[in-house]
């Protein structure tokens, strides 16, 4: 248990104190504060979150396979003693938590603005929104992870993740249920659920493939 605790502590420090996370927080807060809720509905809030969070997800997840490059030598030595697949999946979980923290900050700011403007907040379901948007974030983030795994280059991974975002947003659009932007394209009921299940399943498969490739190439 102590080793697991130390592992979590090290990776939390790497993620939450990184420049990428601090920049993501600042960017997301600015966008949320600037978001005008005076003439918008709950649906517009859902659409805003679904469009913005995946970009943040690409930034947060892109360096997951090579995150240890940012740590000190003694921490790196400790990490080398632990099963590398465990380390990899712990980093994934921590990045998911980081995404949830960003969403929480944005949700609170929008919730306060709705109260201030006397708009109804009963449909602002935090856990429902969180589960939907983390799937979208993880899906595009997993694509960035695969690109990093193959290229060992964060800049290329960022480009690959953002390019996939553009493909789904501008090219594929609502022509198929396999899209991370189901709410934005006004999917309802079973079609929305299917789109999220497809994205989550694909993300898990891509993450497992990345882990296997990293282990095979002894880069974990």
Describe what this molecule looks like in 3D.
This protein has 220 residues and is mostly helical. Helix 1 packs across helix 5 and helix 3 packs antiparallel against helix 5.
In brief, what are we looking at here?
The protein is mostly helical and 220 residues long. It has helices at 2-16, 19-34, 42-61, 73-79, 84-116, 126-151, 154-172, 189-216.
Write the layout of secondary structure elements.
Blueprint lengths: L1 H15 L2 H16 L7 H20 L11 H7 L4 H33 L9 H26 L2 H19 L16 H28 L4
Helix pairs in contact: 1-5, 2-3, 2-5, 3-5, 3-6, 3-7, 5-6, 6-7, 6-8
Largest sheet: none
Order of helices and strands: HHHHHHHH
Strand content: under 5%
User: What best-fitting shape do the alpha-carbon axes yield?
Assistant: globular
Unreliably modeled segments: none
What's the multimeric state?
A: single chain
Radius of gyration: 18 Å
Give the N-terminus to C-terminus distance in angstroms. 21 Å
Q: Give the helix/strand class.
A: mainly alpha
The tally of beta strands, per DSSP, is: 0
Percent range of helical residues: over 70%
DSSP helical segment count: 8
């Amino acid at each position: 248990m102590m080793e697991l605790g130390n592992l979590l502590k090290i990776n939390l420090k790497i993620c939450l104190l990184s420049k990428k996370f601090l920049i993501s927080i600042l960017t997301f807060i600015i966008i949320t504060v600037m978001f005008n809720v005076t003439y918008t509905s709950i649906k517009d809030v859902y659409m805003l979150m679904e469009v913005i969070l995946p970009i943040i997800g690409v930034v947060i997840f892109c360096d997951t396979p090579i995150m240890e490059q940012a740590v000190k030598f003694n921490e790196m030595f400790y990490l080398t003693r632990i099963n590398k697949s465990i380390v990899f999946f712990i980093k994934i979980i921590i990045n998911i938590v980081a995404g949830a923290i960003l969403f929480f900050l944005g949700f609170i700011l929008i919730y306060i603005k709705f109260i201030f403007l006397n708009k109804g907040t009963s449909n602002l379901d935090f856990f429902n929104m969180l589960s939907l948007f983390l799937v979208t974030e993880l899906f595009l983030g997993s694509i960035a992870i695969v690109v990093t795994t193959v290229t060992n280059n964060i800049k290329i991974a960022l480009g690959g993740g953002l390019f996939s975002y553009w493909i789904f947003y501008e090219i594929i659009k609502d022509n198929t249920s396999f899209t991370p932007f189901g709410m934005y394209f006004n999917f309802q009921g079973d079609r929305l659920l299917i789109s999220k299940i497809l994205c989550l399943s694909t993300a898990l498969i891509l993450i497992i493939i990345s882990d296997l490739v990293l282990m095979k190439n002894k880069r974990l």
